[in-house]
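Subgroup meeting minutes
Present: P.N., E.W., G.H.
Scribe: E.W.

1. P.N. recapped why we're keeping a running log of single-chain structure predictions: easier to compare across weeks, and new members can see raw inputs and outputs side by side.
2. G.H. added today's entry (404 aa).
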Amino acid sequence: MRPATQWVKPGLINESNLRQIIRRPTIRSRLRGENMGRLSLRLAGLVVLWLVAGLSPVFAADFTKPGPFAVGLQKFTIPDISGKHPMATMVWYPAAGPAPDPNAAILMVSMDAPAATTGPYPLVILIHGLDGNGSLYGTLGRQLASYGFVVAAADYDTGLGGPLDEGVSREDGRAIWLLYDHPANVVRVIEYTDSLTAPGGKLAGTIDTSHIGVWGHSSGGTTVFQAGGARVNFRELDAWCAVNKKDPYASDTCQFVGHEQSVATHYGVADPIAAPMPPIWDRRVAALVAGAPDELHAFGDTGIAEVKVPTLIMFASDDAAVSPKHNALWAYDEISSQDKALAVFDRGGHMMFMNSSEPAFKQANALTTAFFLDILKGHPAGRPALMPDAVSFPGLSYKTTLQP
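Output recorded in log:
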């Protein structure tokens, strides 16, 4: 039996008023260079309320403001899984010093500052979107560190613009990069933080690697699900792509069709169709947050159902780059997590998670903060801030299975 879902003061969206919510799509030139066409978002029977009252968000605690910790930053270089493309990595952490100014426009950081001494603090991994880098999400990294998390953001796509894995085609290399290298490198970053917090490490005793959260945007959101146990399932992917081959929004996921054997070889699997690929994840991962995730049908119904850890999924309904129907909405229904939440913003587009000028940017970061506080730290202010009656600001629909 699936867990009961709580909605914000339910209303009903139908096909007519949905058209007024969806904005005109754009060309996804930055991520794919393809004209993705008109976004078709079908939420038949989905019970939501698009709130229009009020001028500012109301949380049980205002997680749009920084937390009580000063923030330090250290930079490291981590070898990637192939050993050919070292990954520049930024690590934000709670630092010794006065609490941040809650009214400051930018949360300041101190390079190589001494760590705060009340740790260890849970680890959060940030995964950027395709062709991006970790520094694009520095605002979220600093925010989480101010609330008592150690946050690691690596540049996973180092080398993507040049030679990939030797001996494979460019197209094969891209599939390998997204479906194998990315999740394997998340595990690599986690293992590196084990060495940082070990005796003699540069952050000795600071990181609690027994409680790990993973956050990702776009293609990084694909990797988030793998970091939570999802398994690539080429049999179900191929079948789904055969049915949806005329849907322009299926092309992102269906780019992997024809490259199954190359990916499977990296997994050490001879037959890519016989069974799902082995999972690539660290079982200490205990919480997932995915922003505008993409390419999720690479897992199929069977592979996505392997995700059982608490999960928060967010996207904007005017996202013209990816299909929420094929990704975020489908994943929310199909994951096996007993504790999960879905936040849908009415505007912000695909890039809202790195665009601080978007009104939804701070609200998405606040929900992320509350979610990690609740799941990873059991903080008493976390769960109340995730309850439907505690989340009230314009342009949000929200549902959750979380119970008070």
